[in-house]
Write a structure and sequence with these properties.
It is a single chain. The protein has 6 helices and 18 strands. Helix content is 20%, strand content 29%. The chain has an 11-stranded mixed beta sheet with strand order 5-6-15-18-14-13-12-8-9-11-10. Strands 1-2-7 form a 3-stranded antiparallel beta sheet, covered by helices on one side. Strands 3-4 form a two-stranded antiparallel sheet. The chain is α/β, with parallel strands linked by helices. The termini are far apart. The longest helix has 15 residues. The chain has one domain: 3-Layer(aba) Sandwich (Stationary-phase Survival Protein Sure Homolog, Chain: A), CATH 3.40.1210.10.
């Protein structure tokens, strides 16, 4: 996939028997990502062989965009620019950075909704969390089809999903019956190269937007040109929580919370894919029930043993 003159994204799409495959700049070579040991399919983006077909913009689709880095983040500007090639776009994002806000909502605080200049579509800033922004945005704009959250300045992998405000924006959409897709990329010593990322974001969106059965997806993009795309599961590693004491300039005690992983990265997970240069796409669900534990509890611990007298 590449960007042509005039800002039009071009692509070529084909179907495989088990996993739909999208070409990058032409030829697609489908193979296992890690010999025969990795069961996830990889989408490998190769050199151009055939002239790709123009991408058709669905003028009836409405895409609401939010984030947790704030309305002025370069990541949300890049995502909005790409999304305008697919549908009508509106940005509704926090007025300041709300990183690691998780799924907090402003239950007892009134929210503002202020129009904000932005090059790509209408934009509004809200004095609330990413989840607040999605709630207000869907309320103020009828018939939203998809909510995109990102592009986050920093990856959202594994346990970070629990406190990610970026993912919470997409999850709030799913709670309201609208599809949600979160997108993140690692931050290095310098800001991410969004000009380089935009074609790859467009590739992912062209693949995911028609997949209406996927209600909530967490996407992470490597900081450099991806080797391909992998379906992944969430990495669940345990951490050694560390609290580092310090003092502020006035001598008052302050604390930094840090974590150190105590286990290796699990093969086939989001973190595993990103470590190897692949885009990670993780389908998620709202139901947190552990079905295996539920069945075990019902069998091993019958409720007849519990008596209320």
């Amino acid at each position: 996939m590449h960007r042509m003159a005039g800002g039009t994204y071009h692509c070529q799409q084909c179907l495989a028997t088990r996993l739909p495959v999208i070409s990058g700049a032409g030829i697609v070579n489908e193979r296992y990502a890690h010999g025969n040991s990795a069961r996830e399919r990889a989408i490998i983006l190769g050199d151009a062989a055939n002239e790709p077909q123009p991408l058709q913009r669905d003028k009836l689709m409405r895409i609401l965009i939010t984030n947790d880095d704030g309305v002025y983040s370069p990541g949300i500007a890049a995502l909005a620019e790409v999304a305008t090639h697919f549908a009508e776009v509106r940005v509704v994002a926090p007025h300041v950075e709300m990183s690691s806000a998780a799924h907090a909502i402003s239950a007892s605080t009134p929210l503002s909704y202020t129009r904000t200049p932005m090059p790509f579509g209408e934009a509004y800033r809200v004095n609330g969390t990413p989840a607040d922004c999605v709630s207000v945005g869907i309320n103020r704009w009828d018939h939203v089809d998809v909510v995109l959250s990102g592009i986050n300045l920093g990856s959202n992998l594994g346990n970070a999903m629990w406190h990610s405000g970026t993912l919470a924006g997409a999850r709030q959409a799913a709670l309201l019956g609208v599809r949600g897709i979160s997108l993140s990329t690692p931050t290095m010593e310098v800001e991410p190269d969004f000009a380089a990322l935009k074609p790859w974001v467009a590739t992912v969106l062209e693949f995911l937007l028609p997949a209406s059965e996927l209600k909530l997806v967490n996407v992470n993009l490597p900081p450099r040109a991806p080797k391909g795309v992998l379906w992944t599961r969430q990495s669940v590693r345990h951490y050694d929580g560390t609290v580092v004491p310090t003092k502020d300039p006035f001598g008052r005690p302050r604390f930094w919370i840090s974590v150190v992983p105590i286990e290796e990265v699990e093969e086939g997970t989001d973190r595993w894919a990103m470590d190897r240069g692949y885009v990670s796409m993780t389908p998620l669900r709202l139901d947190l029930t552990d079905d295996e534990q539920l069945a075990m509890a019902q069998s091993k611990h019958p409720l007849e043993k519990i008596l209320f007298t």
